[in-house]
Amino acid sequence: MSAGHLEQARAAFLQGLHTLEAGDWLPAAVTHRDGIATPPQQYVRQLFDDYADEFDAHPVKQLRYPGHQL
């Protein structure tokens, strides 16, 4: 996308947010629409449940966090 196409970029960005399965909350939060400050409880629960199995390995293997060795 070339410079000067702000509205097209905005639309593409918002479309991408909708694909994250966060419903309408994430786009509204990013664009400060509707005074939305917190995500729905079910979204947060699902996010953490999906990450739980990888929680211990992710910081060490992917992020190369050395804290556990120190």
Query: What separation lies between the terminal Cα atoms?
Result: 46 Å
Which bin fits the share of residues in helices? Answer: 40-55%
- Major sheet size, sense and barrel closure: none
Question: How many domains make up the 3D coordinates?
Answer: 2
Radius of gyration: 17 Å
Shape: extended
Structural class: mainly alpha
pLDDT averaged residue by residue: 76
Helices and strands, in N-to-C order? Answer: HHHH
Low-confidence stretches: none
Continuous helix count: 4
Strand content: under 5%
Summarize the structure.
The chain has 70 residues and is mainly α. The protein contains four helices and no strands.
List the topology elements.
Elements: H1 6-18, H2 25-30, H3 41-51, H4 57-62
Q: Could you explain the architecture of this structure?
A:
The protein has 70 residues and is mainly α. It has two domains: 1-38, no CATH class; 40-70, no CATH class. It has four helices and no strands. The chain has helices at residues 6-18, 25-30, 41-51, 57-62. The longest helix is centred in the N-terminal third of the chain and has 13 residues, at 6-18. The protein is extended and about 50 Å long. The model has no long low-confidence stretch (mean pLDDT 76).
